[in-house]
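Tokens as discussed.
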């Protein structure tokens, strides 16, 4: 039986504890790939909303920096966006593991609309 080598992802996965200083540093573009209604309910302060389907249709339009952190609700949709960003050549791509839910559960700042 031949054992397959683990596939290396072209982006980093970080916990909310690791992500918080990166987000607060201002060095990273933070893109939330959830839907507008999810974003309106709660989001990390300073994130830019770009729903996943919109991002995937034209990723070059939305990535404006060499360092990007993607976030969604729990980290699955953001991983798809991170994969795409890496594929178009963004040098430093991070996926926020656990997403907005993990961020909120840690007691970190959350903004709500309305």
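Sequence:
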């Amino acid at each position: 039986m031949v054992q397959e080598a683990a596939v290396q992802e072209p982006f980093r996965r970080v916990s909310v504890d690791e992500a918080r200083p990166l987000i607060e540093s201002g060095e990273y573009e933070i893109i939330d790939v959830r839907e507008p209604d999810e974003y309106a309910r709660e989001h990390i302060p300073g994130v830019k909303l770009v729903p996943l389907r919109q991002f995937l249709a034209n990723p070059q339009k939305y990535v404006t920096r060499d360092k990007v952190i993607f976030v969604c609700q729990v980290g699955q949709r953001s991983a798809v966006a991170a994969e795409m960003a890496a594929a178009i050549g963004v040098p430093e791509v991070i996926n926020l593991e656990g997403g907005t839910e993990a961020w909120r559960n840690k007691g970190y700042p959350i903004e709500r609309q309305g």
